[in-house]
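Consider the tokenized backbone below.
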């Protein structure tokens, strides 16, 4: 959030005793006061807006993102793909140029 969206005040709170939800959701505690930020978070993660039943209300935070299994799977695959791409690039860089010219 800090790097990609320029959001300066972020805090990670880990709840190890709680199982991950199925879907990543964003709770908006600003009552629509920061719609552009909310929209960017929902698009970039991706996530959905938390329903009123799942809303995490805490006046200390403008927005709370509850990470779900869907986001873990997405970013785990993306990281693996990046590793595979990097390895492929390294293999290409290490090829013998005489073999390419033949």
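A designed sequence for it:
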């Amino acid at each position: 959030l800090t790097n990609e969206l320029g959001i300066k005040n972020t805090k990670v709170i880990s709840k190890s005793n709680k199982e991950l939800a199925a879907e990543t959701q964003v709770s908006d505690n600003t009552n629509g006061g920061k719609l552009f930020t909310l929209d960017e978070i929902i698009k970039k993660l991706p996530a959905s807006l938390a329903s009123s039943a799942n809303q995490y209300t805490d006046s200390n935070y403008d927005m709370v993102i509850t990470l779900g299994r869907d986001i873990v799977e997405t970013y785990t695959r993306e990281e693996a793909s990046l590793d595979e791409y990097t390895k492929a690039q390294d293999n290409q860089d290490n090829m013998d140029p005489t073999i390419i010219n033949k």
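The CA atoms of residues 16 and 71 lie 17 Å apart.
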